[in-house]
Write a structure and sequence with these properties.
single chain, 13 helices
Length: 332
């Protein structure tokens, strides 16, 4: 209610002399991205993000991820309408940390993160938030496209599918948006940053797979599992140091990589990226035709989450999963 009741039409904000120029520039950028999203991607940008809300805080919400100490299978929480999700959201940081403390006291791995975006999945007229504005232009565009995908297609109770779909479409959309704007320098910079990000993401997903094999292996004493778990995370950090030395470009993962990692924090990455290669492959099969792509996605609506995952991973439901695919970075 706070988000919606404080929203002001963008036209009014643009005419307000008290509003800073950088805010107005981002709102103009939002209008450009919205037009592109509707015209080229077929996303429901009509009356979305044509208003602006300043919440007066750094994050719009905070989310809690939790997983058992010796499992990569995350905790889920039930919600009205959208089903079970792999995170619990709060509009209060204190409430989020209290929830995390409760799980930690029960022996779970936990992660609490601030969230910049909030979407009502098209049920209401979502505004641009002040929490979006500190993002660079490509991150800002990616965020808007990501949330508009949720407004177009959202399958209740299938967090991994929904988030990976929005991630794949938003990243492909930003590339097309930069190409259509003839911002080839920006496109090269985006591709460079994405290539490094994806190398780090592959490392994180491989680490999660290694932990999963450890936890599912022959029963071991808890102290032995903790030692082996710590060794896997140490190896992950060493590999990240080598990746960082090879790349001149920065990555938002670099800024936070050396904060503590655990099963729950790895799930924040897996939720958004584990199925991305499957969606990218599907988009290529549709020859970049987003209308055909979304029709195919909508045809999965009656499937179970396991059936959707199996289709995206090119395997029969119930069969063993493979190592995460190499995630393709397209060139200009």
């Amino acid at each position: 209610m706070q988000i919606l009741s404080r929203a002001r039409p963008v036209e009014r904000v643009m005419q307000d002399p008290k509003v800073e120029g950088k805010v107005k520039r981002k709102l103009a950028l939002a209008a450009d991205v919205r037009r592109f999203a509707a015209d080229r991607l077929g996303l429901p940008a009509g009356r979305m993000y044509d208003r602006y809300t300043d919440l007066g805080r750094r994050h719009v919400s905070w989310v809690v991820f939790a997983a058992p100490e010796f499992s990569v299978e995350g905790e889920t929480w039930p919600y009205p309408v959208v089903g079970r999700l792999k995170y619990r959201g709060f509009f209060s940081e204190a409430a989020a940390r209290a929830e995390a403390s409760d799980f930690k006291a029960r022996g779970f791995d936990v992660f609490v993160g601030g969230v910049d975006a909030y979407s009502t999945l098209g049920w209401f007229r979502d505004p641009v938030l002040n929490t979006f504005l500190r993002l660079c232009d490509t991150e800002f565009a990616e965020l808007l496209l990501h949330e508009l995908v949720h407004a177009k297609i959202f399958f209740p109770g299938d967090t991994d599918f929904n988030e990976a779909l929005a991630t794949a479409v938003s990243e492909a959309g930003v590339r097309l948006w930069l190409e259509s704007s003839k911002d080839f320098r920006g496109l090269d910079e985006y591709e460079g940053a994405m290539a490094k990000d994806r190398e780090i993401i592959r490392l994180l997903l491989r680490t999660r797979e290694r932990l999963d094999r450890l936890y599912r292996g022959a029963p071991r004493q808890p102290d032995d599992l903790r030692r082996r778990k710590a060794a896997i995370f140490d190896g992950m950090r060493r590999e990240h140091s080598r990746i960082r030395q090879r790349w001149r470009t920065g990555s938002h993962y670099d800024r936070n990589f050396y904060k503590p990692w655990n099963n729950a924090r790895l799930n924040t990455v897996a939720t958004y990226y584990d199925l991305v290669p499957g969606f990218e492959r599907l988009l290529r099969n549709c020859e970049g035709d987003f209308a055909s792509f979304f029709r195919t996605i909508d045809g999965m609506r009656r499937m179970s989450p396991e059936q959707r995952r199996a289709m995206l991973e090119n395997r029969a439901p119930g069969s063993a999963r493979h190592e995460p695919d190499a995630i393709r970075i397209s060139g200009r």
